[in-house]
TrEMBL record:
<keyword id="KW-0090">Biological rhythms</keyword>
<dbReference type="GO" id="GO:0043153">
    <property type="term" value="P:entrainment of circadian clock by photoperiod"/>
</dbReference>
<dbReference type="GO" id="GO:0032922">
    <property type="term" value="P:circadian regulation of gene expression"/>
</dbReference>
<dbReference type="InterPro" id="IPR000014">
    <property type="entry name" value="PAS"/>
</dbReference>
<dbReference type="GO" id="GO:0000976">
    <property type="term" value="F:transcription cis-regulatory region binding"/>
</dbReference>
<feature type="domain" description="PAS">
    <location>
        <begin position="95"/>
        <end position="159"/>
    </location>
</feature>
<feature type="compositionally biased region" description="Polar residues">
    <location>
        <begin position="307"/>
        <end position="316"/>
    </location>
</feature>
<keyword id="KW-0677">Repeat</keyword>
<dbReference type="InterPro" id="IPR050760">
    <property type="entry name" value="Period_circadian_regulator"/>
</dbReference>
<dbReference type="InterPro" id="IPR035965">
    <property type="entry name" value="PAS-like_dom_sf"/>
</dbReference>
<keyword id="KW-0597">Phosphoprotein</keyword>
<dbReference type="Pfam" id="PF14598">
    <property type="entry name" value="PAS_11"/>
</dbReference>
<dbReference type="GO" id="GO:0001222">
    <property type="term" value="F:transcription corepressor binding"/>
</dbReference>
<protein>
    <recommendedName>
        <fullName>Period circadian protein</fullName>
    </recommendedName>
</protein>
<keyword id="KW-0539">Nucleus</keyword>
<dbReference type="GO" id="GO:0000122">
    <property type="term" value="P:negative regulation of transcription by RNA polymerase II"/>
</dbReference>
<dbReference type="GO" id="GO:0005737">
    <property type="term" value="C:cytoplasm"/>
</dbReference>
Length: 316
């Protein structure tokens, strides 16, 4: 309460909204007028004034404007807006529609879309101001253009066509729904040339994605997705796998151990000569002792006189 209503209108719809109000004020005879615009959703409050959901989302509404004079003396005009929300007409993928409301589209001879019914919003998801002056032929499925070329030839020659075969028309989310169309046209009586073509479209089958208001994938999103795909391929081809990484770590550890061992060998001091010299044992003198053995009580190393006195027989 107290805030301007236009603050809740989507920025892309504010010019159309302001133009609608200006037209209503300029032509007071027009009591009611309508338009389709997106209004910001209520984001919800928890405790106090803390915003619970910070994502700003918008929802399409059908607005009905009414200008009323509350007091004739002061000439104060009030704007009364009745807002009716739009929801997707489809609930399941490729839904067969039994009682769809037909809607009208009109485009010029060069294909520019001049008018589209607000009734088309729940089926196609487009807001009229978003597709006005856009190429209407871009809504047709590429594989159906061959058949539609024959349809337009019939329209130019005959001026109308009762009802076509089923063909595909693109919704706002990028998917296609199946339609049948009754065609009529207006030919300028002076120039004898086609001025515009009117198609009354009947929905036969819904798109694969039932949410026609879903934002389609943009070129920026496609480029971003392609960059991610290229990054994944690069990771698979360039980044080492876990076994290869473990093998690399083990090889690195072995190289480090070998380098440490080689450094330790280079840092050790050479041994001195005393440590390298062999201990030579003293010569064995046992043969002297062997030669000193008494043979028959006589030793060659004893003095002769001693031996003689020891063996001689005393004289009587």
């Amino acid at each position: 309460i107290g805030r301007s209503f236009i603050d809740f209108v989507h920025p892309r719809d504010r010019n159309t909204f302001a133009s609608q109000i200006t037209s209503g004020l300029a032509v007071p005879k027009i009591v009611n007028s309508t338009m389709v615009c997106r209004i910001r959703r209520y984001r919800g409050l928890t405790t106090g004034f803390g915003v619970k959901d910070r994502v700003v989302t918008f929802m399409p509404f059908l607005l009905k404007f009414t200008f009323k004079n509350i007091c004739d003396e002061e000439k104060v005009i009030y704007l009364v807006i009745q807002a009716t929300p739009f929801f997707s007409a489809f609930r399941i993928p490729n839904e067969l529609v039994a009682k769809a409301i037909p809607f009208v589209m009109r485009h010029s001879a060069n294909g520019n879309l001049e008018y589209i019914d607000p009734e088309s919003v729940p089926y196609l998801g487009y807001l009229p101001q978003d597709v006005t002056d856009k190429d209407a032929l871009l809504l047709y499925h590429p594989e159906d253009l061959d058949y539609l070329q024959q349809v337009y030839e019939t329209i130019v020659k005959e001026g109308s066509m009762t009802r076509t075969k089923v063909y595909r028309m693109m919704a706002q989310n990028g998917d296609y729904l199946k339609v049948e169309t009754e065609w009529s046209s207006f030919i300028n009586p002076w120039s004898k040339r086609l001025e515009f073509v009117i198609g009354k479209h009947h929905i036969i089958e819904g798109p694969a994605n039932p949410d026609v208001f879903q934002t389609p994938v943009t070129e920026e999103d496609k480029n971003k997705a392609q960059n991610f795909r290229e990054g994944i391929v690069r990771i698979m081809n360039e980044v080492l796998t876990k076994p290869a990484e473990m093998a690399k770590q083990q090889m690195t550890k072995r190289c480090q151990d070998l380098a440490t061992f080689m450094e330790s060998l280079m840092e050790e001091q050479p041994k001195v000569e005393e440590e390298l010299r062999l201990d030579i044992q003293d010569p064995d003198h046992s043969y002297y002792e062997r030669d000193s053995v008494m043979l028959g009580g006589i030793s060659p190393h004893h003095d002769y006189n001693d031996s003689k006195s020891s063996t001689g027989t005393p004289l009587s």
